Amino acid sequence: MPTPSASGCCEQELKEHCDLSTDTLRHNERKGPLQAGRSANGYREYAPQSQDRIRLVRNALSVGFTLDELGRLLKIREEGGAPCRKVRALAGAKLKDLEEQPRGLSALRDELRMMLGQWDAKLVATRKAGARLLDGDRGAAVVRPSELTGNSRARKGIISVVFASLALLRIALEGVA
Q1: How far apart are CA 63 and CA 60, in angstroms?
Q2: How would you classify the pairing of strands 36-38 and 9-10?
Q3: What's the mean pLDDT in 45-62?
Q4: Is 75 or 101 the better-scoring residue by pLDDT?
Q5: Domain residue ranges in the chain
Q6: What average pLDDT does the segment 36-43 reach?
Q7: With contact defined as beta carbons under 8 Å apart, do 110 and 173 qualify?
Q8: Residue 101: alpha-carbon gap to chain centroid
Q9: What is the CATH class of 9-82?
Q10: b/e 66-77 (16+ beta carbons within 10 angstroms → b)
């Protein structure tokens, strides 16, 4: 742990200058990006460049780095190494993850739509009784057209087509996953 110089600042000053809570400062210390020494009276004392370090942490967090990652990278730098290639590789992996998120969200959206359609059918079928929507597979309580109340043949035919389409969509989604 570095020994702060006489021009370092105490915890209260750093909190005020950087608009951080004590908990946030100490969390940053535990995770590694920020280090504090101790003054003669035992209080935390931060190096003069701590404000710059906090700015670096905020910028890195805003683009997806974690405090654990920053702690490891900054430790390499403090030991005289140059973690630039590691930083670049991590940032590249984060970009790849971001680019894959829309596909995962689309699949989740489609499954949620399907589930809501099944739930709507279940609610129509059960009317006043409890539908127990969350008891089915992945929360989707499957309803067969024969379970529906009402005499309309056309309605049952349409519902049969909807259920067949939903079943095919579910099979397709499971094949993708």
Answers
A1: 5
A2: unpaired
A3: 87
A4: 75
A5: 9-82, 101-176
A6: 86
A7: yes
A8: 11
A9: mainly alpha
A10: ebebbbbbbeee
Phi-psi region of 100 (alpha: psi -120 to 50; beta: other; left: phi over 0): alpha
> What secondary structure, in 3-state letters, does the chain show?
CCCCCCCCEEHHHHHHHHCCCHHHHHHHHHHCCCCEEECCCCCEEECCCHHHHHHHHHHHHHCCCCHHHHHHHHHHHHCCCCCHHHHHHHHHHHHHHHHHHHHHHHHHHHHHHHHHHHHHHHHHHHCCCCCCHHHCECCECCCCHHHCCCCCHHHHHHHHHHHHHHHHHHHHHHHHC
Amino acid residing at 146: S
Bridge partners, residue 140, by sequence:
137
Report the interhelical angle of 67-78 vs 22-31 (nearest 10°): 60
Six-digit token string for 159: 């519902």
Buried b / exposed e over 51-64, threshold 16 CB at 10 Å, is: eebbebbeebeeee
The values of phi and psi at residue 134, to 5°, are: -85, 0
Would you state the structure tokens that stand for residue 162, as one six-digit string? 């909807």
Structure-derived torsion over alpha carbons of residues 118, 124, 127, 131, reported in degrees to the nearest 10: 0
Contacts of 54 (CB under 8 A, 6+ apart): 14, 18, 20, 28, 34
124-134 residue pLDDT tens: 888 766 777 77
